[in-house]
């Protein structure tokens, strides 16, 4: 897994009794989910949403032993990728090309080696990294005739940096199929906002302030108003470990094989769908502030908010012009 997914705080304004939203909460993909929606029929869709997310886990979850992804990682030749797997794979390959390899779904062996997968952290040296890098690379795996073809059987796929965002889009598609067009979906901090609250008010979504230590309480940095967009946030300050005085980030650069060591603390990305917002947030954490800022300023489909540490160790922020217009409250 590239990164830690932390919750964005959802803020609801007051509504009159006849305008109260439906609220559904639960767990999925090892984290929480929250769905808030306005439905004239006042349907409780928790059972259907739970079933949908369970089925999604059976496709692309790295943590479900019998999922399609797990079976492909274990070189089970009897399994065929299903639609969700194929779409996550195709998205991942597109993102790898768009980001010049900053996004790479074959990073799983590196994530595991550095102690952020199923295994506890182990001693990692350059020889171990070099050996793993021989079977890491998005260009080493393809889908041919509905079968995964690997250049090396040790190649393993990790969709954690895109699948959670994609699952938000899956729930969004389901709600729209039920005629529900005003909703806020949050799965582990990946958020889709469609339509609005009563009175055409935007959905309010909080962006967390980077903490000095991973155990620190969560505080807001900004609140944005969101209409018909998705936002995903990736950060390096909640999931890491320290060994011999060195802090190892869970964000692994697939081009080098090592945890990133730059000054970017978190980045929030706004995009047209949550899968893309999720994937770009991860990619920008790999790139670092300067390269990511240059990238997003050239891409008119994205907006971003960066929190980074300057040379004096003080936190600074940068928001693209479109993102800045969405900020409705700021905190110290």
Describe this structure in words.
With about 325 residues, the protein is of the alpha+beta class. The protein has nine helices and 16 strands. The strands form four sheets. It has an eight-stranded antiparallel beta sheet. Strands 1-8-9-16 form a four-stranded antiparallel beta sheet. It has a two-stranded antiparallel sheet with strand order 4-5. Helix 1 (about 45-60) runs antiparallel to helix 6, helix 6 packs antiparallel against helix 7 and helix 7 (about 275-285) packs across helix 8. The radius of gyration is 20 Å and the shape is globular.
Q: What is the strand tally?
A: 16
Strand order of the largest sheet: 2-3-6-7-10-13-14-15
- The H-level CATH homologous superfamily of the domain at 59-150, spelled out, is ApbE-like superfamily
Strand content: 25-35%
Question: What is the average of the pLDDT values?
Answer: 88
Q: Kindly report the CATH topology of the domain at 59-150.
A: T-fold
* Termini gap: 31 Å
Helix percentage range: 25-40%
Low-confidence segments, ≥5 residues, pLDDT <50? 1-14, 244-248
């Amino acid at each position: 897994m590239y990164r830690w997914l932390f919750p964005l705080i959802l803020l609801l304004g007051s509504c009159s009794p006849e305008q109260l939203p439906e609220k559904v909460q639960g767990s999925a993909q090892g984290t929480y989910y929250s769905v808030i929606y306005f439905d004239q029929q006042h349907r409780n869709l928790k059972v259907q949403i739970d079933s949908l997310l369970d089925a999604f886990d059976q496709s692309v979850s790295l943590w479900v032993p019998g999922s399609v992804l797990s079976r492909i990682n274990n070189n089970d030749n009897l399994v065929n990728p299903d639609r969700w797997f194929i779409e996550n794979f195709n998205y991942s390959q597109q993102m790898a090309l768009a980001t010049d390899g900053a996004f790479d779904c074959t990073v799983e062996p590196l994530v595991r080696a550095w102690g952020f997968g199923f295994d506890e952290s182990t001693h990692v040296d350059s020889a171990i990294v070099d050996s793993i890098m021989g079977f890491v690379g998005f260009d080493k795996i393809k889908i041919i005739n509905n079968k995964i073809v690997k250049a090396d059987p040790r190649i393993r796929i990790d969709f954690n940096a895109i699948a959670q965002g994609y699952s938000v889009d899956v729930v969004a598609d389901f709600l729209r199929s039920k005629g529900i067009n005003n909703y806020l979906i949050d799965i582990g901090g990946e958020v889709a906002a469609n339509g609005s609250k009563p009175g055409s008010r935007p959905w309010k979504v909080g962006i967390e302030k980077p903490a000095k230590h991973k155990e620190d309480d969560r505080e807001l940095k900004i609140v944005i108003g969101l209409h018909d967009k998705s936002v995903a946030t990736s950060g390096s300050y909640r999931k890491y470990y320290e060994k011999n005085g060195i802090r190892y980030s869970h964000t692994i650069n697939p081009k080098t094989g090592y945890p990133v060591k730059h000054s970017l603390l978190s980045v929030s990305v706004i995009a047209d769908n949550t899968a893309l917002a999720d994937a770009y947030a991860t990619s920008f954490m790999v790139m670092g502030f300067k390269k990511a800022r240059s990238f997003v300023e050239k891409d008119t489909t994205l907006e971003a908010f960066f929190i980074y540490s300057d040379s004096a160790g003080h936190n600074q922020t940068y928001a693209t012009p479109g993102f800045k217009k969405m900020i409705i409250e700021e905190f110290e």
